[in-house]
Amino acid sequence: MSVNSSAPLSGPVAVEVKVGEKQKNWSTTPSHIVHHFGASGLAVAVATAVTHPLDVLKVRLQMQFVGQKGPLNGMGRLFLQILKKEGPKSLYLGLTPALTRSILYGGLRLGLYEPSKYACDWAFGSTNVLVKIASGAFAGATATALTNPTEVLKVRLQMNSSMKQSGSIAEMRRLISEEGIKALWKGVGPAMARAAALTASQLATYDESKRILIRWTPLEEGFHLHLISSAVAGTMSTLITAPVDMVKTRLMLQRESRKIGSYKNGFHCAYQVVCTEGPRALYKGGFAVFARLGPQSTITFILCEKLRELAGLNAI
Predict the structure, then answer these.
(1) What is the mean pLDDT of residues 280-295?
(2) Rg (CA), the chain
(3) What gap in Å lies between CA 2 and CA 7, rounded to an integer?
(4) How far is CA 120 from CA 100, 132, 136, in A?
(5) Closest CA to 301 of 222, 192, 195
(6) What does pTM read for this prediction?
(7) pLDDT tens, 169-187?
(8) What is the percentage of the chain residues whose pLDDT exceeds 90?
């Protein structure tokens, strides 16, 4: 949290108090850890619930014309097709694993960022933008490695409306029995790369945007600062992560892509997509990614900051 130089306390005393609070927070009680990770997980879960239909559209767009070139449907046309053929409930396919993943993945992804940043500060004496990027990448990759099975279940359910009757538990049992336990970690490499890129770009951009705005504008900690910073973070993270997200989706849905054979890994998948579908195919569903990630980033950060304030925690 930034220190307001106009506060009643003198500069050195105020800084000492703030630093002392942060140090106390990170040495401390189970309740602080629960509040810290809980605020992150709850904020991401709410944002996921609001933007889930856009995530379903994104996955469907990314799986258009697998292995071939062709005229792509736009997000609006695909939205109308899904409503007509499958009904409104299809826009919430995979919601249960998505929310489960949000609480676990979101709590870890946002929750590990600050401890990682302060560990780097303790080790290297710096929290510059490179440290923030590295901290975000570590937090995102670690969170995804632990929660990848929920992501696999989510995209499988989103692509197959026929599975909505059986549910996520039945699909997990079927997946393990037919493809083995390793299938739950399909696409984990690109998923970790995407999460590392997403968290690094999103959190580092948000953190740096807040710092710059506080320094160069009249804005202070509060709604308007969080709104502007989260909008910038959502835009930056979309540009960086859209191609990686597309590769991750293709790997997790290998059975849908058998007409061109199996992908060996993320690089092979990207190469095959570029060769058979063209370079623009890496941004299939890119607008849906932005339409989802932009609002999701805004909701996540604004709600997380508010929950942290209510819990007596420092701002991100």
Answers:
(1) 81
(2) 21
(3) 11
(4) 30, 9, 12
(5) 222
(6) 0.74
(7) 887 888 888 888 888 888 8
(8) 29
Q: What type of residue sits at position 211?
A: R
Q: Compute the distance between CA of residue 262 and CA of residue 152 in angstroms, rounded to an integer.
A: 17
- The dihedrals phi and psi of 113, each to the nearest 5 degrees, come to -60, -50
Question: Comparing 19-28, 175-184, 237-246, 258-267, which segment has the lowest mean pLDDT?
Answer: 19-28
Q: What confidence score (pLDDT) does residue 7 get?
A: 44
Tell me the one-letter amino acid at 18: K
Interatomic CA distance for residues 143 and 163, integer angstroms: 27
The Cα 29–Cα 20 span in angstroms is 15
Euclidean distance between CA atoms 194 and 26, whole angstroms: 28
Q: Which residues contact 179 (CB under 8 A, 6 or more apart)?
A: none
Residue with more model confidence, 267 or 22: 267
CA atoms of 22 and 208, how far apart (whole Å) = 19
The residues near 315 (Cβ < 8 Å, ≥ 6 apart) are 1, 2, 210, 221, 305, 308, 309
DSSP 162: G
Token pair for 2: 């930034």
Q: What pLDDT does 11 receive? A: 42
CA-angle at 62, arms to 59 and 64, nearest 5°: 115
With beta carbons less than 8 A apart as the criterion, state whether 38 and 107 touch. Answer: yes
Rounded to the nearest 10°, the torsion over CA 167, 168, 174, 177 is -150
Residues in the chain: 316
Amino acid found at 232: V
**CB neighbours of residue 64 within 10 Å:** 16
**CA quadruple 132, 282, 229, 21: dihedral sign:** negative
* Residue at token pair 């590392």: 196
Neighbours of 54 (CB within 10 A): 22
Tokens 């736009």 belong to: 74
pLDDT at 108: 92
